[in-house]
Amino acid sequence: MCGMKALAINSLTKTYPNGIQALRGIDLEVEEGDFFALLGPNGAGKTTTIGIITSLVNKTHGDIRVFGHSLDNDIYAAKACIGVVPQEINMNLYESCYDIVMNQAGYYGIPRSQAAAHTEAMLRQLQLWDRRDDQARGLSGGMKRRLMIARALVHSPKLLILDEPTAGVDIEIRRSMWGFLKEINEQGTTIILTTHYLEEAETLCRNIAIIDDGKIVENDRMSAILRKLHQEVFVLNLENTVDAAPVLAGFKVRLVSESELEVQVGKGQSINDLFSLLNERNIIVSSLRNKTNRLEELFIRLTQRKDVSTDGSDH
Amino acid sequence: MSGVPLKIQLVGFYTIVRKEVSRVARIWVQTIVPPAITMSLYFVIFGNLIGRRIGDMGGFDYMQFMAPGLIMMSVITSSYGNVVSSFFGAKFQGYLQEMLVSPLSGWVIILGHVMGGVVRGLAVGAIVTVVTLFFTDVDVKHPLIAFAVLILTAMVFSMAGMINAIFAKKFDDIAIIPAFILAPLTYLGGVFYTTSLLPDFWAGLSKFNPILYMVNGFRYGIIGVSDISIGSAFAVILIFLVLFALTCYYLIHRGIGLRD
Questions:
Q1: Do B102 and A57 touch (CB under 8 A)?
Q2: Contact (CB, 8 A) for A300 and A308
Q3: Which residues of chain A lie closer than 8 angstroms to B95, CB-CB?
Q4: For a designed S-S bond to B79, which of A6, A32, A63, B154 qualifies (C-beta 3.0 to 4.6 A apart)?
C-alpha cells in the first residue's frame, strides 16, 4: 500500500570507496502530489541522493521509503513507484524511439498490447510520435531529453524524479516541458526536480530543499523560503530622464543611467510607497524588473558560493 | 519482504529476450556471418586439405571427428561474445540503468541476457552445421544428448560473458578474456584431436579444462565417441552452470561493477 509520504529519507549517509563523503545525514520528506525542488551546487550530493533512491548507488547508512515501501526490504514495490530521468543521456542510441519506450514498459511488466498504447500516448504528449521509428542518435539534445521523460513515464509512476531535465534545452522547449510537467503533477504525479535553472524551480515547485556539502541546509515551502529574503533589487526604466538619483525616504536608490534606476526594497517595505514617492517627484516609471532571481540570491547566500555554475559533474 | 510479481518477471524476461534477439538480427552481418565464414575455412583447410593426410581419428574420418568440435567452438564463442558485448555496451552507454531502476529481479536480467546468448549460439551452431553438411555426412547418434550439451554449454558461456562484462571497465577488458583464456582453452579442449594422442601428463592436464568436457559431450551426442564419460561431461557442465549463475546473481544483486 502506498502511504501519504511519497518519499521519506532518514539519516542517509554515503561515503564512496575513495573516501569522499557525499552525504552526511540527510533527512527529507516529500508529500504525495508535491512538486519538490532539490537544489544544490555541483558536488553537493543531489545526484548521489537520487542515485540511492533509484537504487543505482549503494547507500552507506540510512532509511528510505517510497510511498511507504522500504528500499531495504520492499525494494521491488518501491522501484515500481518510481520513474527517473537521469542527468546523463542513457539510452541505446541505435534503438528506435518507439522501442526504447516499449522496452521500458516491458521492464515494468506492462504487456506489449497495453505498452503500445502507453508508448503512443507518451510519445504524442512529448511531440515525438512523428520520430518514433528514428534511431535515438538522430534526435536533437532537447528531443533526447523528452524521450527520456516519455520513457520514465510509460509505466505511470507515482513519483517522477528528474535530475536536471532541461539542461541544454532551448528556452521554447524548456517552457513547453514545464507546461507538461505541471500538467502531470496536477494529474497526481509527485515530482522531484533537481535543476541549475533556479527560475525553473521557483516557477514549478511548491516545496524546496537546498543541499550543500552533503547536508540539507534549507527545507521549507518555496513561498516561506522566498519570504526570508530581506531585500530585493528592482530596476526601473523611466519615461523621463533624471540627472541624479532621487532621495526617497527609506529606499536606497542608485542611478544606473539617466533613464534607469536601481532601488533596494527591504522586507516589509511596499512598492506602492516607492511609486508614491516617485510620483511626488514627477518621475514616471515605464517598466520594472527584478534585478536578480530571488531564489538564486537565497541559494548563493545559503551555499556560500559566488557562482551557480551550470557545468561540471555532481556527486 | 515481497518479491516481484510473476507477471512482471515474465513480461520483463520476454522483453529482454526480444530485445536481445532483435539486436542479433539487426547486426546479423556481425553476429551470424563471421562464424560461418571462419568455420568454412576450418573445414576447407584442416578438414579437407590437411585432414586427408591425417587419416582416421577416434575411428572416424577426420572431418567427421572435427565437425562436432567446430560446431561447439562456434557456439561457445558466439554465446560468450553476444552477452559480453551486449551487456558491456549497455553498461558503458548507461542504458543498463533502464533495467537496474526497474522492479525486475536479478535472475530475470541474467536469464534474459543468457537466453539472448543461447539464441545467437544456436543460430550460429545451426549455420555451421549446415556448412558441415557441405563437407561431410553427419549422422547424429544421440540427438537429445547433443542438444542438451549444446544448450547447457551456451548458457554457461553466456553467463561467463556476463561476468566478464560486469567486471570490464573499458572495451579492451572484453577482448582480453576471449583472446587469452577462452581461445586457448577451446583450442586445447579437444576440438581438433583426441586426448589419447597426448602424452600422459598433457592428457591428465587436459582434464582440468572444462571445455574438453563440453566438446566431448557434444561429440558423443553426434558421433557416439568421447574421451570423457558422458556422465562426467554433464556433471562438469552443470557445476559450471550453477557456479556462474550464482556468481552473476551475486554481482548483480550487490551491484558490483554496476553501481557507484
A1: no
A2: yes
A3: 90-92
A4: B154
pLDDT tens sequence across A100-116: 999 999 999 999 999 99
Shared domain check, A179 and A247: no
Tell me which residue in B5, B95, B99 faces A109 most closely, judged by beta carbons. B5
Please tell me whether residues A259 and A171 are part of one structural domain. no
Domain borders along chain B are 6-254
Across residues A197-212, what is the average pLDDT?
A: 88
> What pLDDT is attached to residue A208?
93
Q: Which residues of A touch B3 (CB under 8 A)?
A: 76
- Residue whose entry in the numeric block shows the C-alpha cell 520513474: A83
Contact call for B15 and A90, based on CB within 8 A: no
Does A220 lie in the same domain as A85? yes
From chain B, pick out residues whose CB is under 8 angstroms from the CB of A55. 100-101, 259
Distance CA B175, CA B2 (A): 39
Say whether B103 and A16 touch across the interface (CB within 8 A).
Answer: no
Q: What's A272's domain CATH number?
A: 3.30.70.1560
Same domain, A189 and A267: no
User: Grid coordinates in use for A258?
Assistant: 539617466
- In whole angstroms, what is the distance from residue A58 CA to residue A48 CA? 9
Q: If you count DSSP H runs as helices and E runs as strands, how many of each does chain A have, helices first?
A: 10, 14
Count how many domains chain A has.
2
Partners of residue B92 in chain A, C-beta under 8 Å: none
Query: Are both A240 and A211 inside the same structural domain?
Result: no
Q: Virtual CA dihedral for A194, A199, A200, A204, nearest 10 degrees?
A: 110
B12/A107 Cβ within 8 A: yes
DSSP labels for B120-144? HHHHHHHHHHHHHHHHS----S-HH
Per the structure, the complete domain to which residue A272 belongs is given by 229-292
Closest residue of chain A to B101, computed from CA coordinates = A54
In this structure, the answer to whether residues A127 and A275 fall within a common structural domain is no
Domain presence at residue A307? no
Q: What is the ipTM of this complex?
A: 0.89
CB-based contact A107 B14, cutoff 8 Å:
no
